[in-house]
Amino acid sequence: MARSILSASLVRPAWQLGSFRVEGPDEDSFTLAVTALNRLGRQLQGTGARTLARLHVVGSCSPEIDWAFSEALGIPGLDVRRYPSNAPGLWGALAAAAHDDGTAGREAVVAADTATLSPEAAGDRRVRHSAGGVAFLLSKELGLSVLRHGFRGHPPGHSPSMQGAITGWLEALGLSPHGSRGEVVFEVEEEPDRWQAAWEQAAPGITVTVVGGPRVDVGRPSAVEAALLLWELARRLRTGDTGVVGQAVRGRNGFSAFRLDGPVRWLGSWGTGEPGLNPPTDKFLIRKSQLDAVSQGAYLPHPTYLENLAGRWRLVGERCPRCDTLAFPARGRCRSCGRSEGLRSEALPRVGLEVEAVTTISPGAQPTEFDSMVETVGAYDVAVVRLQPGVRATFQVTDAVAGRLRVGDRVAAVLRRLYPMEGEWRYGLKAIPETPGSTPRLGERDPKSPARSARRGSSSVAPRERRATPRGSGGRAERRPQRPR
Description:
Layout: E1 4-11, E2 16-17, E3 20-21, H1 29-39, E4 52-59, H2 66-73, E5 79-83, H3 87-99, E6 106-113, E7 116-118, E8 126-129, E9 132-139, E10 144-153, H4 162-173, E11 182-188, H5 192-202, E12 207-212, H6 223-234, E13 242-249, E14 252-260, E15 265-267, H7 302-307, H8 309-314, E16 316-319, E17 326-327, E18 344-347, E19 353-361, H9 371-377, E20 380-388, E21 391-396, E22 410-421, E23 424-433, E24 459-461, E25 469-470, E26 477-478
Parallel strand pairs: 1-15, 4-5, 4-6, 11-12, 11-13
Antiparallel strand pairs: 1-9, 1-10, 2-3, 6-9, 7-8, 10-14, 13-14, 16-17, 16-18, 19-20, 19-22, 19-24, 20-21, 22-23, 25-26
Helix pairs in contact: 3-6, 4-5
């Protein structure tokens, strides 16, 4: 039995420029991909036939960090395969994951695109296509079956016959133009009306929706755009229907076919995007290489950074079998009874975390490794959050307006860039607000909140009896939140 798509997740960056989403200064293809995969939840952490055995990566994530997907997901020895960042790459990855007989477990496909800028006008930086991440989980269960796909290019000015292309696709799929029941979502750059008429003439038994040009909220064709076309198709299908996603854009035409055999979970804002944050300055689009930057206050040797990635990236602590104490971060020794044998790893929650204290770091007060981020987005918050009773951690807050987070608000932990060191990016968890209304558009002032001065270290903290918090996440009391590492 071939694998089918059981669920899919879509992630859009919080930052918005016009109708386009742009990754934040602490985001890249890797963090977008990991966030999309994590949104699939416990479906990635099964056992036996439900174990994730292979990951198909579509996009520009550096091959040097293939090992990082295994670490970020907590799946040892995960096999990673690579595909180009375009629609053919996505269709090829889905087909390979569906029909791969080399593994027995589940497989996943992830695509991530960062925003690109138009180079036409000197000094005018315009977004050409949005940033985003999308992930699919495939298993040998009933879902959205992946059938066949095919693409071909043609020289400019020598486009193939519309009816000839359509007839060829139907023949390749074994579909009868008059007897088949199904849907087609077809994207074209030019002449959508002519393509619509050609489809209706060549395949009168099939319902066709022609999309004229790339979506405004995505931009030029990309792997994420192709995934949105698939969602448009899937929501039109009835159980047993065959559907085709087709494209005729930029000198290339092709298709990918699917059949709906069972329910599919679509996680994220597939239909309409949620409102985003407006960049505070024009510097937001000026992305300079920072890998040569030298931190002056947070040096962490590479072996030390790697030795506890489970805690830094996934909030994994240790449970003592003798006294049942949960410690985070893991230290290989129980903080309560001193036992070092038989400690069990335990993942802490990463969503719905309550804020117990928060401090706003104004420009000029930040550690030097965050200079570039402050130049891009301005002030930021640092929050102490409760992971479990008696267990706390300190996070830098991102994707939010500084000074708006309050004690009692809820946040989620997501993997983001921290700072460059030793010629590579260091990654770690940051907090993003979950409480409705805690992330208004930049420039808007909360009428319930008094005006705030730009003094250094202005803060909002918990009541006095709750201010004593363990350093980082447990241990000695510490009133002032530490900067994240």
